[in-house]
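Researcher: Last one for today. Full complex below.
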Amino acid sequence: MPFEWKYQRLVPERRPPGHQPAAPRYSLRWTEPRSTLVSVYFGMQADAAGDAALAPAHIARIRGFLAEANGPAAHEIMRCTDEAGLENTIVVAYWTEPGVYARWLEDSGFRPWFDDPARLGGAVGYWFEALVVPYDRHETIYSAPGYRIGLARTPATEIVPITTNGYFGAARDRLPLSAIDTLESPSGGLFPATTEHASRGAHLCAVVPHNCTVLRSGQYWEGAGQEQLDDYMNALQPKLMRGMAYLVEERERTGCLSLRIMTNLNEDGSARAETSVYAAFLSLNQLEAWAESHDTHMEIYRHAIAMNRLYKEKREVVTWHELFVLGMGNLFEYVNCHPRTGILPYARVLTDRG
Amino acid sequence: MPFEWKYQRLVPERRPPGHQPAAPRYSLRWTEPRSTLVSVYFGMQADAAGDAALAPAHIARIRGFLAEANGPAAHEIMRCTDEAGLENTIVVAYWTEPGVYARWLEDSGFRPWFDDPARLGGAVGYWFEALVVPYDRHETIYSAPGYRIGLARTPATEIVPITTNGYFGAARDRLPLSAIDTLESPSGGLFPATTEHASRGAHLCAVVPHNCTVLRSGQYWEGAGQEQLDDYMNALQPKLMRGMAYLVEERERTGCLSLRIMTNLNEDGSARAETSVYAAFLSLNQLEAWAESHDTHMEIYRHAIAMNRLYKEKREVVTWHELFVLGMGNLFEYVNCHPRTGILPYARVLTDRG
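Model: Here's the assembly. Have a good evening.
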């Protein structure tokens, strides 16, 4: 039996009585107990010319650090253009033992490199967003059991069928902690004032608000035939992009603190037929409100379900996500970045004394 | 059945096979599930004259904040003279729902007062050490079931008899997480270099190291008869003080980052027949090494056990502790404090930008 974590419910589940999901869905389990999951995004930020010149070396450097003792159980490389129009090269890495991650951070070459005053100059910024997440604050969903990505690339895992899907509130129900905690934003979802910090030439640490909800949502269409490829490119992807644009444009309503539409990369740096959307929300409530009621999400949702029903097990496009409702104490770090990077404009910001 | 949290063991327990404890001991349980416990120390630091003038007002001020919406489930007042010889007035408060604590921190008057630039001047320092602890990273022990103190003053709790006591490693075995995590210091217990930060006139945040182990150990002899009182004052308390002095004097060996020998206070500010020792260690390993092998602890331990056996249920001195092995992400905050306050000399320190 894989590891599960269940609390005796104090908060009612959202699953309707007798619910049977319309389409099969899957979730990740570990075969051994896990207390804390760690997902870390390492970014480099530059203009197009700087990015072209430096991205391969950045990837190689971070991978070099990750290859040291106590490195992650899995990692991937991606890129995105951020809200300010700069190019970002990103390595995401996963640990499933917090003590191993802490030791890597202590012993590897990453911290001395990242903290080096040399990083503060020049036209390139570096950032480091570490999500350290108690197991009961995470949930995953996959449209198919065969494709391994994100946390699902860590060892000692199984992808198992679930029935907590296909209704509004299912993501919440999949979070073990939701059985005893309503996971509300301490600010009641009130969007924070925007602050423009003097972030260039500085090493800033942003304190992630309690119950900030981080979603990595993935789309994989490598090897899809022409028909499903056309549908994905012409129908689903545009709907997805409209939804993402709305989340950012109306961020005071949606609670979206940070959004990155990332393209996954092959080993040689070329683009894969795969994207990952990283989105940080002030609260799970706000993500749910968008998902349950806004046209831009309803269109994505209905289209994905319709294609699943049409193609069934012949569906060649995989969609999935992993979601973390962060507790207190996560720090995102930014060195020489522009002031709109990540959650910088919307968080309590501390300065590293170097 | 009270709430319990058990992992399938990956790390062997330290309890010897067939162990029967020599003396009865008790532990705290909640009658409803708990995910995270919160223990916050609010301190004011001043010289003797400043303390005499300001301590009652400080206690009243903090209690005023705690009485606002979403305040703690319990709190106590204490005082101590710190390592630099300054007087510290301390309020410790307990929450058992992290969302309630987060909301209190967001909405109460505490943060605006603490963060006010007015706090940066003058001869008085303020500090705020918040321990936000996943349930599986805590354990408690009491020598008697009838006296409620610390976490045991929070509602929906029971004090239950245990048998994981009376052997070396019992505290570790009582930590649910120890079943799957060895709880080691990422630095391998190597004591950090001492840094003297320019902490006067500044608002500094110290990042608590992963697996830092914080113990609140209590002694209560209110109402003890002359015989047991004499024994406590003349035998047990001096042994305790010798042990505490050793922990600090040999801190590079013991891993003791911070130590406060606090006297509990009555409502009117007078001293109770009760003390609490707060000690933060780099790792549980180091606390265990002292407890298992050093004369100063063996003397305390043997004397306490002997008195328990002598007086049995007539023992009038209660000893207890609550222990937290902190995960990543706890920040201790210091405003206008002297540079040896708390963990300041031994931690990564960030500056609040105000």
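The first strand of chain B starts at residue 25 and ends at 30. The mean pLDDT of chain B is 95.
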